[in-house]
């Protein structure tokens, strides 16, 4: 007969049993999941059937970007469909491709644009989408925009539609453009953090949050001019789309309380009265109305095809034997070394340009830049690789997206031609250095720092000691040298006198239109215009566009192929389709995190940065 177990033994025995149970469940679930992936890969994705008379359902869920941030394929697979996760991103080029394909597809007769789940986009991205929707409408197909309410970005996109429908409890939330920063000088002083700033450029304001408690007069002047340029573009586009009298949008915003009082606080009635929307609706009524306008399928449901499915169902008809124009997207902050997609790593992007240059079938290169800048050293690495590509006798054209400022412009200066949108943020030709030391913090904590070194610079960067004067003077000289190098690069590339460049430099940020007027860019237009220009410079007529992608490991490629072939994402999509809008508190915390994150990731080997801090925050 077995001896009775003690209470402690029974307790741990129970824990062991629970562990074995959950381990068994976990392994069984993992086995089933892998089996599902393999089965899906073997079966392939079911064909997408586009019924004649369908409406294209354009429902971008997340932030519209030009290059998706890197996500491990397994994580992406288990989180559901791309663009539907907590940090969902929607690729701009996918939206453009699907709209252009649907424009010429006789089976597609209209478009239903739903904006509720769109979480943000750059002004130039929205203009590009608007141009594509305009082209869709010009083919004789009607566009309906549907939203519970509209923020500024959502409304700009919706204004391209023939009809805008808004919920009867909704609001057209226009407020204008602004740059508001948090300033940390007092907080850093309280914490005992000493900030050492080295800069050249009267308007180079990227370091101001660490050196001031408010915006400098120079920065205020610069951003007032810039925001007014961008706002004029925004307002004129909407007033043109909605056939509104000039000044209507500014009057709507500046007299909002007065106008709202006339309609007893009813925001939907006000939007109707000012011709900002065409119909207000309740949920059941709008479905019936859209059925009448768009049509229904055999199940008496709206006859629509989701743009993600339609994109998968639209084969390319471009000849594989045509000459190729390579397009590389450079999106995000510029950092030294290697970096995943969504960040520009100096070594990573340089290697991609080098690999592209080694392919003799590539006749020209278009670099699409959407970056506020970053490491000066990494920017120079990329610029020199572009110059080497040009030395091979093939043209390089830069297409600027929403932002190509500071280090982003440093890179662009190597191009044969620079294209920008009128609302692009560019320029910010300036340079700065930033170092933090914690000697005051250590003193408050009672921590001493002492030691010896062989030279005057040995241990100069130790956090617990004051920055030696020799280091401070040396860094300032390096920054001044870097600025002169920046000025010289731009002057030689743009065939300008260095004094001319200095006058429009000094860290000043310009709109694309102003940059054209100042000689910093060659043409105004979108990415396709830049691609056509590159083909013309290369002397090719029949060409196809090849989107160059960063290197993926065999493991990543395998999982990505499984994900694309198995259709598991489509099976998991309903589980993640309830994408929630980011709450105001989350937005505040995310913005604060972004403001500090770049300083934590700054890794230039000489502490030298060409970055526009505010440029990354102007999203609608």
List keywords for this structure.
8-stranded mixed sheet; alpha/beta; 620 residues; 2-enoyl-CoA Hydratase, Chain A, domain 1; 6-stranded parallel sheet; 23 strands
Query: What portion of residues is helical?
Result: 40-55%
Total number of strands: 23
Query: What name does CATH use for the topology of the domain at 54-172 and 277-313?
Result: 2-enoyl-CoA Hydratase, Chain A, domain 1
Q: In percent terms, what proportion of residues is strand? A: 15-25%
Distance between the termini: 76 Å
The number of helices is 24
Radius of gyration: 28 Å
Question: How would you characterize this protein structure?
Answer:
With 620 residues, the chain is α/β, with parallel strands linked by helices. The chain has a domain at 54-172 and 277-313: 2-enoyl-CoA Hydratase, Chain A, domain 1, CATH 3.90.226. Helices cover 46% and strands 18% of the residues. Mean pLDDT is 84; it is low at 79-86 and 563-581.
């Amino acid at each position: 007969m077995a001896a009775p177990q003690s209470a402690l033994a029974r307790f741990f025995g129970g824990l062991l049993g629970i562990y074995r149970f959950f381990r068994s469940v976990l392994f069984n679930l993992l086995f089933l999941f892998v089996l599902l992936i393999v089965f899906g890969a073997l079966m392939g994705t079911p064909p997408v059937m586009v019924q004649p008379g369908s409406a294209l359902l354009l429902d971008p869920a997340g932030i519209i970007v030009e290059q998706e941030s890197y996500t491990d394929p397994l994580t992406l697979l288990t989180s559901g469909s791309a663009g539907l996760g907590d940090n969902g991103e929607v690729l701009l080029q996918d939206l453009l491709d699907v709209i252009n394909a649907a424009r010429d597809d006789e089976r597609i007769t209209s478009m239903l644009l739903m904006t509720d789940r769109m979480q943000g986009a750059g002004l130039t991205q929205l203009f590009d989408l608007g141009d594509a929707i305009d082209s869709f409408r010009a083919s004789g197909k009607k566009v309906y925009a549907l939203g519970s309410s509209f923020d500024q970005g959502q409304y700009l996109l919706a204004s391209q539609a023939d009809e805008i429908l808004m919920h009867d409890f909704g609001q057209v939330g226009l407020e204008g453009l602004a740059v508001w920063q948090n300033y940390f000088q007092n907080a850093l002083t309280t914490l005992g953090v000493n900030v050492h700033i080295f800069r050249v450029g009267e308007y180079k304001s990227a370091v101001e949050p660490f050196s001031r408690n408010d915006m400098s007069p120079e920065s205020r002047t610069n951003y007032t001019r810039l925001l007014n340029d961008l706002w004029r573009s925004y307002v004129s586009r909407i007033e043109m789309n909605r056939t509104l009298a000039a000044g209507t949008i500014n009057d709507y915003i500046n007299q909002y309380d007065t106008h709202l009082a006339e309609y007893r606080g009813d925001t939907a009635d006000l939007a109707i009265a000012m011709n900002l929307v065409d119909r207000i609706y309740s949920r059941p009524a709008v479905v019936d109305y859209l059925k009448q306008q768009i049509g229904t399928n055999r199940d008496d449901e709206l006859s629509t095809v989701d743009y993600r499915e339609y994109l998968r169902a639209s084969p390319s008809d471009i000849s594989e034997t045509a000459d190729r124009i390579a397009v590389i997207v450079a999106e995000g902050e510029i950092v030294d070394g290697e970096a995943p997609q969504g960040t520009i790593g100096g070594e990573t992007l340089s290697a991609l340009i080098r690999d592209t240059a080694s392919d003799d079938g590539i006749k020209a290169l278009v670099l699409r830049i959407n970056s506020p800048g970053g490491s000066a050293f990494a920017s120079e690495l990329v610029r020199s690789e572009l110059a080497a590509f040009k030395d091979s006798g093939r043209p390089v054209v830069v297409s600027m997206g929403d932002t190509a400022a500071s280090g982003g412009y440093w890179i662009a200066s190597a191009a044969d031609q620079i294209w920008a949108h009128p609302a692009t943020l560019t320029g910010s030709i300036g340079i700065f250095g930033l170092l933090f030391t914690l000697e005051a913090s250590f003193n408050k904590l009672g921590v001493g720092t002492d030691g010896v070194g062989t030279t005057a610079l040995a241990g100069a960067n130790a956090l617990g000691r004051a920055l030696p004067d020799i280091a401070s003077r040396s860094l300032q000289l390096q920054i001044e040298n870097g600025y002169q190098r920046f000025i010289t690069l731009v002057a030689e590339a743009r065939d300008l006198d260095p004094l001319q460049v200095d006058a429009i430099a000094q860290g000043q940020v310009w709109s694309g239109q102003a940059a054209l007027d100042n000689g910093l860019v060659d043409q105004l237009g979108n990415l396709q215009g830049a691609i056509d220009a590159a083909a013309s410079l290369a002397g090719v007529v029949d060409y196809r566009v090849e989107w160059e992608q960063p290197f993926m490991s065999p493991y990543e490629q395998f999982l990505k192929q499984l994900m694309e072939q198995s259709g598991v994402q489509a099976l998991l999509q309903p589980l993640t389709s309830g994408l929630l809008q980011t709450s105001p508190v989350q937005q505040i915390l995310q913005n604060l995190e972004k403001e500090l994150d770049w300083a934590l990731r700054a890794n230039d080997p000489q502490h030298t940065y060409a970055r526009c801090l505010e440029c990354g925050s102007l999203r609608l």
